[in-house]
Amino acid sequence: MAPKTLSSFLSPFTLNTIPTTKLPNPSLILCRFSPAHPKPPLPEPRLPEPEGTGPAAPTPGDRFLESRRSFDAAKIILKEKKKKRLKEKPLKKLSTAVACCYGCGAPLQTSEPDAPGYSDPETYALKKKHHQLKTVICGRCKLLSHGHMITAVGGNGGYSGGKQFIMAEQLREKLSHLRYERALIVKLVDIVDFNGSFLACVRDLAGANPIILVITKIDLLPKGTDFNCIGDWVVEATVKKKLNVMSVHLTSSKSLVGVAGVASEIQKEKKGRDVYVMGSANVGKSAFISALLKLMAEKDPVAASAQKYKPIQSAVPGTTLGPIQINAFLGGGKLYDTPGVHLHHRQAAVVHSEDLPSLAPQSRLRGQSFPNSQVSGNGTTRKGNSNDLNGYSIFWGGLVRVDVLKVLPETRLTFYGPRSLQIHMVPTDEADEFYQKHVGVLLTPPTGKERANEWRGLDSQSQLQIKVEDVQRPACDVAISGLGWISIEPICRLLKSSDSNSEKTAGELHLAVHVPKPVEIFVRSPIPVGKPGAEWYQYRELTEKEEEERPKWHY
Q1: What are phi and psi of 493, to 5 degrees?
Q2: Who has greater pLDDT, 489 or 33?
Q3: Taking a C-beta distance cutoff of 8 angstroms, is the pair 175, 278 a contact?
Q4: Which has the closest alpha carbon to 258: 191, 330, 341?
Q5: Angle between helix 285-296 and 259-269 (nearest 10)
Q6: Residues with Cβ within 8 Å of residue 279, at least 6 apart in sequence
């Protein structure tokens, strides 16, 4: 009975659903709804109608907002792409995993006793066991601290005649990561070799990081120098070189003059960033860091503890061979002493390694002026006007020769540089013979006949035509890269007289300067040194815009 009842119940339900009219109604509604579905998007193409037609046309304000949105969106996309490119680029980060000598930054090793970074195996093992490798100084640094001249840099910009364990190009590569990091750069320039040590390509290494310009060794300038004039002259020279810096500081690491101002500026502008001290080789970076730590230690206990293990100081260019990390700030961030950038156009790159100390002035500069005597360098008496330099050649050691071709009768040349280089004057027609006879003996460096035989000679000559605009002040300076400078005075102040005919003959001075290749010569505006410099130096009048954009100098 039950199955029959079930079949009889199902069969009429199935049959009754077929003829009913309720099923076609939803199917009909579906058919009508399907063509109506694509119709709502039809009004969308009407939005971008030609401007000024229809009530929905965009107003000028809408157009401005839309353009700003698209501009901001494109800016964000470009920024993201730039970040992506930087992430993909393999950056050479500064590695702190390798233990280095705290004196020179060379990696510590126990296999090569003559190489930088060497430490006695027993000492190395003991320090490593007690986690004190940061307190190890290598054997080379110990010798440098006792006055030994041990070079380690070779290649283009390195030093001939000495041991060469690393190339100048490798040292530069150790600074390549800086342009991709957020850092504060303290750039050092030697006032005695301003043009040769200026490092105009610093932006290639530092990128867009802010730069504080520090001028070192101002205590070497002649007595009576007005530092107001020097500060203005440095700022003018920096602006001409188109280097944007935050500020300029005149300092002396020996007397600590101006160092406190740099420390204050670093603390103000650091803002949690690492601080890198940069500059060309032998510009005084390690000495500056020692002076900086000494002043900071008075208020900062972290800097006081860092004084115990500070970088080694030496007269040898290329003392620092790797970045040296120093914990010097209480509020975060590190201080780094970096390897000097070795430049091939300086005198240090062409002389023998044992002659390097003779290129560095050890005391205050005193200009040596010519003419100052009636006797020439070879002992013969000068003929004619004793004050006339025309037809004479002046040797500055064995590194520079200046031929006076055509100058005013009262013209004077004053040499500023290391006193160890003697100056000799001979007639130009005897200059070649005099140089060949006395180079290595009377004309040094090079020192000794053996080095003189290997010496390349003064094989680069520059013809200088110097315009004289005002005979009452020096016409210019001729700066020799890596050595010093020569001041060219059209009329010697000691020889001025009312019957002088200098105004009639004023025009151009003709000189020929000989140096070894590839040493560079710079003709620049005269630097106002000594008491006379303050008398003739003229401050340039500035516009309001120039006054705002010019970096401020501090002393």
Answers
A1: -60, -30
A2: 489
A3: yes
A4: 191
A5: 80
A6: 187, 188, 189, 197, 199, 285, 340, 341
Interior angle at CA 354, CA 351 and CA 358, nearest 5: 70
CA 34 to each of CA 21, 27, 45, 355, 536: distance values in angstroms, whole numbers, following the listed order? 21, 11, 21, 96, 95
CB neighbour class for 335 (10 Å; exposed up to 12, middle 13-18, buried from 19)? buried
Q: What is the percent of the chain where pLDDT is above 70? A: 82
Is residue 3 very low, low, confident or very high in pLDDT (cuts 50, 70, 90)? Answer: very low
Q: Please, what is the average pLDDT of the chain? A: 83
CA distance 77 to 365: 58
Indicate the pTM of the whole model.
0.80
Give the residue from 154, 385, 185 showing the smallest Cα distance to 270: 185
DSSP 306-342: HGGGPPP--SSTT---S-EEE---TTS--EEE-PPBP
pLDDT in tens, 395-409: 999 999 999 999 988
Q: Which residues pair with 509 in a beta bridge?
A: 466
Sign (positive/negative) of CA torsion 77, 80, 85, 86?
positive
Cα–Cα distance measured from residue 317 to residue 282, given in angstroms and rounded to the nearest whole number: 5
Judging by DSSP bridges, how do beta strands 166-167 and 153-154 pair with one another? parallel
CA distance 203 to 345: 19
Q: Retrieve residue 317's tokens.
A: 């260019």
> pLDDT tens digit string along 285-326?
999 999 999 999 988 888 888 888 889 988 788 889 999 999
pLDDT of 118: 94
Averaged pLDDT for residues 473-497: 85
- Nearest of 105, 291, 262 to residue 187 by alpha carbon: 262
Distance of CA 81 to the CA centre of its chain: 30
* Phi, psi of 371, rounded to the nearest 5 degrees: -80, 145
Interatomic CA distance for residues 152 and 174, integer angstroms: 16
User: What letter represents residue 552's amino acid?
Assistant: K
Confidence of residue 59 (pLDDT cuts 50, 70, 90): confident
Q: Does the pLDDT of residue 243 top 50, yes or no?
A: yes
For residue 384, the SS3 value is coil
pLDDT of res. 68: 78
At 546, the amino acid letter reads: E
How far apart CA 481 and CA 189 sit, in angstroms, is 13
- Provide the pLDDT for residue 480: 97
Q: What are the tokens at 212? A: 């504080």
